[in-house]
Amino acid sequence: MIVRRIGVFSAGKLLAALYAALGLVAGLFVSLASLVGTASGMGGQHGAAPMGALFGVGAIVLLPLVYGVIGFLGGVIFAFLYNVAASVVGGIELDVE
User: Fold this and answer.
1) CA 84 to CA 89: how far, in whole Å?
2) Per residue, what are the HEC states of 27-46?
3) CA 14 to CA 95: how far, in whole Å?
4) Which of 21, 33, 48, 91 is buried deepest, with most CB atoms within 10 A?
């Protein structure tokens, strides 16, 4: 079996989903670090604590979106480049049972 072509948008969608899941995990860690810093009083100035908490909660929403967009664009670019290269050299040969 030889992989001669990869669906550009299907690769983009798959990588968008994987990267969004990775972004959610990263967002949870950033949120946790932000909330621990806020709770420990390391916010610095008076009034900085609400911004730290807002940043932490925002990371849970923003990072999966950003990672998802980056994953989609990376998947589309990779699949396109693979298709161009596979048309020249013949693709990847796979042995499956």
Assistant:
1) 9
2) HHHHHHHHHHHHHCCCCCCC
3) 23
4) 91
More reliable by pLDDT, 44 or 78: 78
CA distance 75 to 16: 8
Structure tokens at 81: 């480049």
* DSSP secondary structure letters along 65-78: HHHHHHHHHHHHHH
C-alpha of 11 from chain center: 14
Q: Give the CA distances from residue 52 to residues 27, 28, 81, 87, in Å, rounded to whole numbers and listed in that order.
A: 14, 14, 41, 51
The answer for residues whose C-beta is within 8 angstroms of residue 86's C-beta and 6 or more apart is: 3, 4, 5, 92
The neighbour count for residue 34, using CB atoms within 10 Å, is 20
| Amino acid, res. 5 | R
